[in-house]
Amino acid sequence: MLPVASALPFSQALMAAPDSPRGALAREIEKGRDADIARLREWIALPSIAAENRNMREGAQYMAGLARDAGFTGVEVIATDGHPGVFGVMDNGAPTTLGLYFMYDVKQFDPAEWSSPPLEGRIVDKPGWGSALVGRGAINQKGPEATLLAGLHAMRRAGIRPPVNLVLLAEGEEEIGSPHFRQLATHARVLPALKKCAGIFIPACWQGPDGEVSINLGAKGVVELELVASGKAWGRGPTGDIHSSNKASVDSPVWRLVQALQTLVTPDGNTAAIDGWFENVRPLTAREKELIAISAASSDEAKVKQMMGVTHWIDDLPFEQAIERQASQPTVNIEGLVAGYTGPGGKTILPGKAVAKLDLRLVPNQTRAEAERKLRAHLDAHGFPDVEMNVSGGYDPTEVSENARLIKAQEKAYAAMGVKANLYPRLAGSWPGSTFTAPPVSIPATQFGIGHGSGAHAPDEYFVIDSTNPKVAGMSGAALGFVELIYQLAAT
Amino acid sequence: MLPVASALPFSQALMAAPDSPRGALAREIEKGRDADIARLREWIALPSIAAENRNMREGAQYMAGLARDAGFTGVEVIATDGHPGVFGVMDNGAPTTLGLYFMYDVKQFDPAEWSSPPLEGRIVDKPGWGSALVGRGAINQKGPEATLLAGLHAMRRAGIRPPVNLVLLAEGEEEIGSPHFRQLATHARVLPALKKCAGIFIPACWQGPDGEVSINLGAKGVVELELVASGKAWGRGPTGDIHSSNKASVDSPVWRLVQALQTLVTPDGNTAAIDGWFENVRPLTAREKELIAISAASSDEAKVKQMMGVTHWIDDLPFEQAIERQASQPTVNIEGLVAGYTGPGGKTILPGKAVAKLDLRLVPNQTRAEAERKLRAHLDAHGFPDVEMNVSGGYDPTEVSENARLIKAQEKAYAAMGVKANLYPRLAGSWPGSTFTAPPVSIPATQFGIGHGSGAHAPDEYFVIDSTNPKVAGMSGAALGFVELIYQLAAT
């Protein structure tokens, strides 16, 4: 569910040559390059897909093996009521502990839609970026995770102990909304270890074409759900599909769904109209607006629009206000509609059922539980008690203080590498970070990384191995970036 | 596009034993039974599917062969701008000429959904009905058509000339909305032949469980179309699918479609709200209401509801008013909705495009051209000029006078066979009959037949061969029914 990249990239930045005190490690990482690529390719060859119950046990065992190889100890596959997680620690005798959040699962894929086999990890040329490894999970999230492990392998080979202790927690259900992740995070062995961490992050290689990255001070929450109108639940209309000529005397569950849907948003489809939706929405602070203004000023609006395939923001807003909206507004989005006949041409039926797949993004101080409750109450109050609401997953929003030690260390690490990093109030996408930021864990949680890839959830997902863009790191540079963060956190 | 059966069946009736003056032909039909079944099975084995451009030339040639074998002369495959039609005549030197409308195409099918191979024509037991031949086209429309041909074969074998001349016109595009049927009907050889006909009918074996049939004095028209909202046409929102987190700053073509749709109907989804839609809608006449009252009084409402899987009519109307609505009201039906991710679970995308598949049923004096024009004007006037309207086919409504000679002959034929037949003002389904009823052809056009089958357009479509229901004809009885009509028309 983690998005490909922040929707709105940031100002231009240059990737400095790594002639820092970490030069020795840079050379060691370069030596391990072939083994690091092979490790990633082998991992991609074993896809764990929770939605298909595919390779889940195998994937957890494999993740445990990767952790052990990288130097973690006490590595354990931890059962949940769903698919298992993996936990391990690396006690380096340091005063500071850093958490690493991994996911070993990947999104479903259809090989027919790919230009090279999705489990092969073939290396192809990506014009403008360099050579890139193509495969399911390449960027979301095995590529960045394997790259962090590459950094740890290099330190191990060089006989250098990381200057922080590490705690690794991996789940296998991220792509289905992390339904049992709280069980993992509050497990008797895991919780005390997490609480020791100065913060936790998921490796993420999201540099834009100008090398830019963002340091996200939180992320929106989300609820994913289906709304279902059916003759069966309604007690009107047909229970199955019948001939469409009967519309003259029989009610339509499809029209019912359309009417229910249109009560959820303003007529332009852009603002939630669910009763009480904005009660707990906290407006942007002056500081958040300031950070957005900085981002807008240093971003290339035309390039952003071109990448997204859009020509106008909502209400034709200027760029800065569009980013403010992106960071501050909850959304009611229709991911998909399915009813009746969906093939080519037509088929004269009156369908017995209609489904809308929605995602609702939430901002502080909304909560997932509040959102579910209010949507149900809204449907009931507007005369649609029969429209079923099937929630498949979701997270609360997260917030991280810009004064958190992990954030300060990220700023220093990016600066040390000459990477332009903008503080950004809130990722418009969502991730299970609230499991860490909320009690009982209560630690800062965010993303970190340089390097680049794209195509999460899509065909031809890729991760750049050797970058031809001087502003963007390849795999080795990205591995060094993770090492840099470890050193900067120790020193912060 | 022809519906399986009239939505609302009629009063109970008994199928009399055929000890009429046509007894000799009844025995001759019984003798030909095996050959008649074999002829139907062979025809089903060659599916012509216009939407897939499958076996169209072969299907037309096969249809021509069937016509020649049954005694038609001058049989010709006639080219159109689409798929060809077949035309033939049988000049019996009679003062009266009867038209036969056939379709040689069938609906698409997925063998995986069938309990026996859809091209095999396997004969299975259908509890409550008898033995039935299962195959694509069994009831829609090869079964009834082959049954009529069986009657002609029997007459030929018995050396009996039909007491009317026959004109046969078959098309191969009925299942895609008959886009070139007018070309066929107005062809230089065809038009003069059709204009000589006292009327034309499509063989239809739609007896209900109590043996009831209806004599439909017309049928609704229809327009089938897709409404498409897209970022491309709108100039807002994304041109392709993008990550759903962008909903906060980017417009949604899916919400656009939902908003456009909900302007088309009243909030209950049951009455068209398209500007000017009812201008030319003719209310039911006193006679039409009378016919409906007779139908309602002699029908079993509970059984009708059970067959359709509905528990309430629109507005909880009593049965008679529900049938009035069915006969008199134009409809705006959503056949299907397709947008974004339609698979299991969710996928966090903001789709670039959304499609609604609609069928609009039309009543006299609406026309297809008027409906298309008004829907476009409505969308434009309500601020949706970008919502594309792609019409795939349609027909005008048809009307036939109850005093037409063909209708009188049908009443007599059913009465002679002891079949309860209700005059019904208007089939709520649609068929290309307006090509016949409108200028320049201008002849009565309707359906006729006894016998039973069901499952048009669905898996396991079937046609009853030997009926175990004493009120319902099997194939031989249905063949005799067609012969009966021929005699009754000659005598009317």
TrEMBL record, chains A, B:
Q: Does the keyword Metal-binding apply?
A: yes
Give me any GO biological process, just one. proteolysis
Q: Name one Pfam family in it.
A: M20_dimer
Which key words are in the record? Hydrolase, Metal-binding, Protease
Domain named Peptidase M20 dimerisation: which ranges? Answer: 241-384
What GO molecular functions are on record for this protein? metal ion binding; peptidase activity
Q: Entry's PANTHER family? A: BETA-ALA-HIS DIPEPTIDASE, CARNOSINE DIPEPTIDASE 2, ISOFORM A
Q: What is this protein called?
A: M20/M25/M40 family metallo-hydrolase
**Which organism is this protein's natural source?**
Novosphingobium aureum
